Amino acid sequence: MNTDRRRINGPSGGTSAPLFVQAVKDVGYLQSLRPERTRGPNELRTICKLLQTSIVPSASGSAYLEIPMSRSTTTPTTLIKPSSALKLVCSIQGPKPLPRSVPYSPSLVLTTTVKFAPFASRTRRGYIRDAVERDLGVHLETALRGVIIGERWPKSGVEVVVTVLEGDEDGWWGDDELGAKGGGWGVLNVLAGCITVSSAAIADAGIDCVDIVSGGVAAIIRNPGSKKGNEVVRVLDPCFADHKDIVAACAVGYLAGRDEITEAWTKGNVGARGNELMEGATHAAVGSLSVLKEALLEAVEAKYQGQATVGKLSAKKTETTEDVDMSG
Amino acid sequence: MALPTVALPGQLLGPATKYAPGPGTHIHDSNIYASIAGPVTSAPTPTPKPSTNPSTSKPTKPLPLLSISRKPSSSSAFAPDAGILGINSGGGSNILPEVDSEVLARVTRLGQRFATVEILVVGGEVTREGFQGVVRREDVRGTEKDKVKVEEVFRVGDLVRGVVISLGDQSNYYISTAQNEYGVVMATSAAGNQMYPISWKEFRDPKTGKNETRKVAKPL
Description:
Chain A: Residues 51-207 form the Exoribonuclease phosphorolytic domain. Chain A is α+β, with helices and mostly antiparallel strands.
């Protein structure tokens, strides 16, 4: 691994709360800490009031999205959080003229960057972009390219920068202690969040789009509560820490108005249930779209409030002049 | 169908047979959809001049133009957060120079065949960052094009009003000043003083009393 020698790096092993001997030795106790999904299979995590636009003043458009930690029913007996939340900031620079070295482009040149903050996950991340971050950036670019009307902005470029302040996990932290490896599931939730938050930021920046794109995730999990023990169910908006055995998962970027998918990323063994999985992901995307629309409407109203009052004032002025005319 | 007051990207506004698409909208399946978030305005389409497109068959009745304003209109320049040049004067707005848009630009460099300028204002709106443009020697004025010498019509630092004639190549927009209204609007002399125009081709320094040649824009 290439280390960053320009900065003072934190401990590489992570900075989570101490884990006591009881947790490691007594497997039963450790298992008792495992979080469980308390929502129904088609129920989404609530992101109401946790999506906000125009938060970075220097950017032409920006948005913040938070998907809170799923609430567990059991009272916490440990300091370690059962699962993580998802917190994303997106800022948009441009459209601005392309640098001299870039050849002529008749449409908008889109650059996307996804970067995890060093403190975004339980194990510390580096400052240099790694393969996962580059991968996420490419997927986000595909999702956004299908929605932006690039021909309206010739000879210009736009940069979409998403910073992950807290990332969703690949699995429960206790499984890591027990030696199980996460399957990289968490990036799907991060991607869906990135799509939703950058869509809000693009609308805030006033870049022409054919529709609002929103992200959604669905997963097929093996249900341990079932009689046979290997029955699979589909869940929307999964929190991967809540599930022990994940079969497959899918993240999509979905245009609800046109019923189009601009981006799909599937992981795991989908089998014959691919359509069902994809459909579930689009349902989850529609769920986040409703919040997205509400937040955007609120932002537009706030932005144009001044204009409305000025309009009213001028209307009043004409009224008074009319009155004067009549009296005179 | 009644028009919504505020639209979001992808929102259906109306059929293309009843309205004409304006800025901030697009057509999909012969319906007009919004493409940016903002208040919807419907205005009668300005009747096209017969000289501009005589070939196109005119519709019997002009369709109302549907558009979505990109930012609070200039009438709200009295808003408390407006800068000295009106709203967005600090941050500038996301606006691109287009062909036929009137621009204000500052001369940054003079060459044998062209003057390099930095476009600061497009169509009355301050841009977020400057766009690079050139005024070629043959685009400086409409007459005696072959006798133009760039160093006799511009000086570095002058403010020039012009019109974009082409999006140009990868780095430059092409600007023309070949009309009476276009040319240098603010000029500084060699002594560093602000000058005033005295004729179509000369500015005078009020302190030293010396004249300098420029392609002078006709004062509005």
